[in-house]
Automatic annotation (TrEMBL):
Name of protein: Holliday junction branch migration complex subunit RuvB
Record region (Small ATPAse domain (RuvB-S)): 185-255
Metal-binding found in the keyword field: no
Gene Ontology cellular component terms for the protein in this record: cytoplasm; Holliday junction resolvase complex
A GO MF term: four-way junction helicase activity
Predominant place of localization: cytoplasm
Lineage summary: Bacteria, Bacillati, Actinomycetota, Actinomycetes, Streptosporangiales
E.C. numbers: 3.6.4.-
SUPFAM superfamilies recorded: P-loop containing nucleoside triphosphate hydrolases, Winged helix' DNA-binding domain
Length: 352
């Protein structure tokens, strides 16, 4: 048994990247939600423009699909400067980074996606470049090695990370501004959906947008993806007309339920409740019960279930909450794990 994760996976792959590029807001004022980040960033950018200096380096932290790449492109657009894009995994050696830094033009925005995955030597070179706009290129090896200093044009680093906790403190401290991207509420996702529908030339009634938004896991990328599935369904089965019922039928067909849970999520919860009486049960036992790798269960299904307050990771194993029983239409036992306890435990374990 294996599950098609494409529909509610927060990462984008293949063709989806092209479609996403077309749906990306280009200016800050088009960017929906994240009101606090937007206001903070707008101040940073305006004052930089006023002083005619590159703004402080910006770190964007938040889960996949929340708009980090979009926002970094917006920063370059708002400053009317070029944008250079790379990613942590591409910077394996210090030389990879030096090659980029030495060719930056003044004021350019350098976007490093997944910055927590940079190699150590590149990271150390980056500290110096961020602070002093200078790097030391080491030539030769051993006792004969010499460091040749190289000037770097003043630039703005925009880093994006899904795991801010993995960034070493010296790197984190060199960002003047950290934008914490939050999950979007349903009303904001409705706006995202209306905007995307306009761009796709699709009529989307308000109640249909509401239906899709509620199943989108707080994530614009998923909202846009569900919208395309609803559009496909409507074209084939409903003469291209999207209504709330059409949206709901489409998403039911793709097995995305009213809370955004998909087949794997429900299989994990179902096994936890029906086979293990709600837990606690170990990760690998639970994974075997749904015929998946432990890592798939842990990385793909659990974070969302935890966030929805349906599952808790405790030192003794995975535990279903009272809400999980209710979600699957079952009666919670009197001693079912309460929702308030879940929050406490997550805090204690340091991954709330
Ligand atoms: N605030 C937003 N307003 C409108 N669309 C958004 C917003 N944030 C993200 N999106 C859409 O979601 C998709 C994924 O966003 P992206 O910036 O690639 O996320 P991340 O880099 O955080 O994974 C983009 O194609 C964009 O169209
Ligand atoms: Mg991205």
């Amino acid at each position: 048994m294996s599950f098609d994760r494409d529909l509610v996976a927060p990462d984008a792959e293949g063709d989806e990247r092209l479609i996403e590029a077309a749906l990306r807001p280009k200016r800050l004022e088009e960017f929906i939600g994240q009101a606090r980040v937007r206001e903070q960033l707008s101040l940073v950018l305006q004052s930089a423009l006023r002083r005619n200096r590159p703004p402080d380096h910006v770190l964007m932290s938040g889960g996949p699909g929340l708009g980090k790449t979009t926002l970094s492109m917006i920063i370059a657009t708002e400053l009317s400067v070029p944008l250079r894009i790379t990613s942590g995994p591409a910077l394996e050696r210090a030389g990879d980074l030096a090659a980029i830094l030495s060719t930056l033009s003044e004021g350019e925005v350098l976007f490093i996606d997944e910055i927590h995955r940079m190699a150590r030597p590149a990271e150390e070179m980056l500290y110096l470049a961020m602070e002093d706009f200078r790097v030391d290129i080491v030539v030769g090896k051993g006792p004969g090695a010499t460091a040749i200093p190289l000037e770097v044009a003043p630039f703005t680093l925009v880093g994006a990370t899904t795991r801010a906790g993995l960034l070493p403190a010296p790197l984190r401290d060199r960002f003047g501004f950290v934008a914490h991207m939050e999950f979007y509420d349903v009303a904001e996702l409705e706006q995202v959906l209306h905007r995307s529908s306009r761009l796709l030339g699709l009529q989307l009634p308000g109640d249909a947008a509401h239906e899709i938004a509620g199943r989108s896991r707080g994530t614009p990328r998923i909202a846009n993806r569900l919208l395309r599935r609803v559009r496909d369904f409507a074209e084939v089965r409903a003469d291209g007309v999207v209504t709330r019922d059409v949206a709901s039928a489409a998403l039911n067909l793709y097995e995305v339920d009213a809370e955004g849970l998909d087949r794997l999520d429900r299989a994990v919860l179902g096994a936890l409740l029906r086979k293990f009486g709600g837990g606690p049960v170990g990760l690998s036992t639970l994974a075997v019960a749904v015929g998946e790798e432990p890592e798939t269960v842990e990385v793909v299904a659990e974070p969302f279930l935890v966030r929805q307050g349906l599952l808790a990771r405790t030192p003794r194993g995975r535990v279903a909450t009272a809400a999980a029983w209710v979600h699957l239409g079952l009666t919670p036992p009197p001693d079912a794990f309460g929702a308030s306890m879940v929050v406490d435990l997550e805090d204690d374990l340091g991954h709330a």
